Amino acid sequence: MTPSDVKATLSFSDGSPNMELPIYKGTIGPDVIDIRKLYGQTGKFTYDPGFLSTASCNSTITYIDGDKGELLYRGYPIEQLAVNCDYLETCYLLLYGELPNASQKQEFEHRVTNHTMVNEQMQFFLRGFRRDAHPMAVMTGLVGALSAFYHDSTDINNPEHRDIAAIRLIAKMPTLVAMAYKYTIGQPYIYPKNDLSYAGNFMRMMFATPCEEYKPNDVLVRAMDRIFTLHADHEQNASTSTVRLCGSSGTNPFAAIAAGVACLWGPAHGGANEAALNMLGDIQKNGGVEKIGEFIKQVKDKNSGVKLMGFGHRVYKNYDPRAKLMRETCHEVLDALGLHDDPLFKLAMSLEKIALEDEYFVARKLYPNVDFYSGIVQRAIGIPVPLFTAIFALARTVGWIAQLNEMIGDPEYKIGRPRQLFVGSAARTVKPLGER
Ligand code: SDX
Fold this sequence. Notes:
436 residues; Citrate_synthase_AS
């Protein structure tokens, strides 16, 4: 952080003494006002529910420019990574700060591949769930359960332990997601195969059965790998902030990641891809393109509580660059499968066009986000809708771990402990039961 030669001066109309606050500049993006001494010097807190104007940390991992619709992982534009790299190269970049060379890539792939199996005991956790349990409920349980297997071998203050925990989590998430899926459809679990790519292994664990050889479709495997890359990290979003806050207590990293899985499940966050596809399905059922106008009217009516899922973003006030890349992937996959007339994809593009021309959305800078097209392409690949967010969690695990390790590796980090504006009852006396 570079101190700015500009200072912020806080003055109070009640005659309290002024206070100077230092301003820091980052490499790119907004400056920050350092308020760490504010409470100590003024007895006042800042107030920012939802953290609209709050930087919770400094980070070197991911940068978003919401106005330009830019996303950089360690400085590399997502558009370049999605085309020139695969997901494991992106994982290496997010974890270690640089893209791997050929031998580093091979060694990293070898390490991840050799940690893809999970302890056989994990099957007994699955058996505790109903077969129709939502995969995100199962994933929250399974990821948390991993902490029971590695509790003694994870000293988060030991960089080697942090590194092996990262490898284990990246390696095991596809296995766990596939197990969660197989459990819900009553099929046997498929073990990982070490001669397959990361995405190819996942597709085989998801769709193979013991009855015949599984032949992966290279276009679908590549699309799955790109979906992982597009979801890998995204600055201090709700689930990443959850992982940082949870991890700041010094808890087991598997437990902290389980907290991230739980937060991602929400429809305002990672659950939006499932909600967006269900929304498209409902519009399709109620008349399709002709009924879009009626649906948009509902969305604009505040009392309806209806939102255009897959649209809008706290940071992007322009097109989410991931949505553009996801739409391209949609085209590729649907063409490869001969589904270019997929009604839901055509409906989504009509809905996007209408929304982008509608004053309500334009005024509020509401554009498609990563979740708007991801459901359509996952559905085309054969992923069941309830599994979409579990795949988002699979892909985001590397981002959560990289952000957690960056925090733990910062000697200045402290346990996160926000304060509040108390608006409840001041002290009062308990009356005996007979007098209440
Ligand atoms: C992800 O943070 C991240 O980076 C998240 C993520 C990541 O990679 O980690 O990018 C992944 O979570 C993407 C977002 C997925 N969620 C959705 O698609 C759900 C639908 N979107 C909304 O719920 C909403 O846009 C949020 C939650 C994403 C953002 O909400 P904000 O920033 O709190 O904005 P807001 O709710 O204050 O909305 C501002 C205005 C409001 O109208 P007014 O009160 O000003 O009249 O826009 C309206 C909102 O009602 N609005 C929408 C809308 N989103 C916002 N109206 C209709 N449909 C929408 N989708």
